[in-house]
Amino acid sequence: MEHPSILVVDDELLIRDLLYDFFQDQGWDIAVAESGEQALEILQEKKVDVLLTDLRMPAMDGMALTGQVRKSFPGIPVVIMTGYPSVESAVSALRNKVADYITKPFNVNELYKRVESHLLREDGETA
Amino acid sequence: MSTADASRTRVLVTDDEPDIRNDLSDYLSHLGYDVSVADDAGNTLSQVTETAYGVLLLDDMLPDESGLEILPGLLDIRPSMSVIVMTGCPTVKSVIKAMRRGACDFVVKPFELDELKTAVHRAAQRNQRLVDEAFRNCKDTTKDSRVVMNSVYQD
Lengths: 127, 155
Fold this sequence. Notes:
A: Rossmann fold; B: alpha/beta; five-stranded parallel β-sheet
């Protein structure tokens, strides 16, 4: 089977680097973006099986990016991660058909399990 | 789907508080939905087993078992049913749990009736879409089987 591919979007370099190394070690094809705009450019050029995005980012935030991905790349499951969790943003994620909502700081093995579980759900009705 | 189509949806309201149950039942019936009520988890499970509800409004805190605990089992029985979780004590963890267990929406009590109306309408549309997809897939499978059968008989 082909390596699964993931696009990680976070404005924090530390998180991007951590996840880049981790997913690469797991044999995934990983791309990183520091903004929603950059993520959309990468999605135009590259096949992505799952998108993992930070919620709070300057300019386009994770929820706005989710909206764009839903419109232009509807089959890609979106997983949100945030260091500022709230009931409101979690409900908004649920209503926007986000596949998962992960709070920071996270255990990277737990995050991996969550992300991997969404690879298997290709029914367009993520979570 | 038009509002008229959505409003034919069967809705089950599960809440142990009679006032909430009755108020929601009256309000949704007034909107044209076909509404039933349940007051605990056991009753919900038996009703969902018997009837193809399109939308379930499920209180999280029930006397016998938590709504979030029974949610996966309910969706195993009715995979296309849209479940809206209701709670008076929301936490980030409970929303995440609802999301991971297959709820399509989460409303916090006390809620505005307009908010509920929108949520139920959206849930009914989602249910209709899933039912239509399942029907289409079923039709395609039947068609494929016919093609295979015809080719077998022609051989």
